[in-house]
Amino acid sequence: MRAGSLRRSTAVFAVLLVLGGVIRRVMPAFGPAADSAFTVLRAALYAGMLLEWLSSVRNRLLPTPARTYILASGGLLLLLLLAQNVRFRPALENPAIYHWCWYIYYIPMIMVPALFAMSCLHMSRGIPGRTDLAPLVPSAALVAAVLTNDLHYRVFVPAGDAAAMNGEAGSYTYGFGYYVICVWVSLCLAAGLVLLVRATRREPRRALPVFLLMPLWSALMLAALLMKNWPFTLPETFCFCAAGLLETCIRTRLIPSNGDYRGFFAHMETPAVITGRDMEVLYATAAPLEASREQMAAALEGPVELAEGLRLHGKAVSAGNVFWAEDESALNRLRQELEDANETIEMENDLLRYENEQKEERARVDARNRLYERAAREVYPAQKRLEALIDRTEPGTEGFRGKMAEICVLNAYIKRRANFVLLSEERSGITAAEMRAALAESAVYLGYCGTAATVECETEKDIPFAAAAAALDTYEAAAEALLGRASYLWIGLRDGELKMIADCAELPETGETPLRAEPGEEDGSACWTIRWEGGSAS
């Protein structure tokens, strides 16, 4: 919109605004019938002015969230004028509607400053963000407080009978919530102006008219609030002061706008045109767009290839069409380079994946080797004894059978002891069933040595690995000491202990063992008790 048009529109709005004020001042002299007609005339006049202003804002501002917020503010101002017209005319005989229209006044009065702050916040950031909507939360809470005032009376307090509180002077006083609303509205306005100045800090003089007019707008609001002969009501004054604030920000370019769309379009370097419905070119950019009418018509259905790498796009818009050409040769080259890079990356990823798999496999092999080395290390003494025993055993000699039985007993111990080491990598404890299986296998081979053994398990608790290994080592030493001395051995696995009852007159020495085999007597027979809870190494 050019300077001459702006001046003319300002003058027209000023004249219409003064005309509305004059109508309000003179209409009481024409009687009640004319009063109603003049009221409808003023309402239509003000609504038309606001709608015309909103239409110009929609055309001047670029389609950004800031424009949405400003248009929403205009809609709220129209709501305020509607609530005023309903309150003072058709609903005059209905106290409930009269009362609620008064509350509705405060929806625009709270939300419009918040939307102004949101617009300024968006423009100071330059890009949309979640924080742009932050002022909506407290504003919505304050609106809810006003609309539910009849439940708590924190915003308006009845001066007498609550049913008589209707917004007229003397029927109410202000509560704490009202002052919170005043502070919040002032804060939104101040924050919005500060954000606008910050957004235009390179040209701070653009904000000067706004700050110069702020005292005038404040004076107008006070006049509407305090002066009985003021030609405008408080809602009307608020509407046009708010619209004036926004319009001043637009005209001083605190809020970016564009009126010269032809000039703006002509300076674009992208090949594009705007045509009418008949494909007649109306606007063209600085870069020429060479396309026939047939190609343009086809571009409305889908992209058209004008030359190698140059594609024509089209889209129907209000009252016409827009067409633009995109040079996709560079894009195609970049796409090919990207595909080549993706293939290279995929190959590198495959190599890395294979290398990681090999590392993992090596790590698993190393872990298994370390585990086997540990198992071999822990059973090494028993293996040396087994080798020595095998070396001393010759088939066909006297005692061959007994020595083979001893070899089986020792071999069963080595197998089960190594198995305990392997199980320790999977979990921290040895189950009672696994311990019983180890003892049962040993008992089988003890029978071959002439010692009938029986195993009973009276527990289901897991045994810590260290305790299970020490108990098995101690048991093996005691069992080997009994060979040839006892014809019967009872083995009992209980919570925290292993009991061995033998039918021998005197228990032999077990030698050095991880746990102490405590000698004793049970049911008239000698016994050993191996404890791993509270026991100590011998």
* Helix and strand element order: HHHHHHEEHHHHEEHEEEHHHEHEEHEEEE
Largest sheet: 5 strands, antiparallel
Number of domains: 3
Strand order of the largest sheet: 4-3-7-6-5
Task: Measure the end-to-end span.
Answer: 103 Å
Helix proportion: 55-70%
User: What integer is the average pLDDT?
Assistant: 82
Layout of secondary structure:
Blueprint (H helix, E strand, L loop, with lengths): L2 H24 L4 H30 L4 H24 L6 H31 L10 H12 L1 H4 L3 E3 L13 E3 L1 H24 L8 H19 L7 H18 L9 H6 L5 E4 L5 E4 L8 H7 L4 E4 L2 E8 L2 E8 L1 H50 L1 H12 L8 H25 L4 E2 L1 H17 L3 E6 L5 E2 H18 L5 E7 L2 E6 L14 E6 L2 E7 L7
Parallel strand pairs: 9-11
Antiparallel strand pairs: 1-2, 3-4, 3-7, 5-6, 6-7, 8-10, 11-12, 12-14, 13-14
Helix pairs in contact: 1-2, 2-3, 2-9, 3-4, 3-9, 4-5, 4-7, 4-9, 5-7, 8-9, 12-14, 13-14, 14-15, 14-16
Task: Give me a quick take on this structure.
The chain is an alpha+beta fold. The protein is built from 16 helices and 14 strands. It has 3 domains: 196 residues, no CATH class; 66 residues, no CATH class; 152 residues, Heat Shock Protein 90 (2-Layer Sandwich).
Describe the structure.
This protein has helices at about 5-25, 30-60, 65-90, 95-125, 135-145, 150, 175-200, 210-225, 235-250, 260-265, 295-300, 330-380, 380-390, 400-425, 430-450, 465-480; strands spanning about 155-160, 170-175, 270-275, 280-285, 305, 310-315, 320-325, 430, 450-455, 465, 490-495, 495-500, 515-520, 525-530. The model is unreliable at about 535-538 (pLDDT under 50). It is built from 16 helices and 14 strands. It is elongated. It has three domains: about 60-255, no CATH class; about 260-325, no CATH class; about 380-530, Heat Shock Protein 90. With about 550 residues, it is of the alpha+beta class. Helix 3 packs antiparallel against helix 9 (about 235-250), helix 4 (about 95-125) packs antiparallel against helix 5 (about 135-145) and helix 14 runs antiparallel to helix 16. The strands form four sheets. A five-stranded antiparallel β-sheet has the order 4-3-7-6-5.
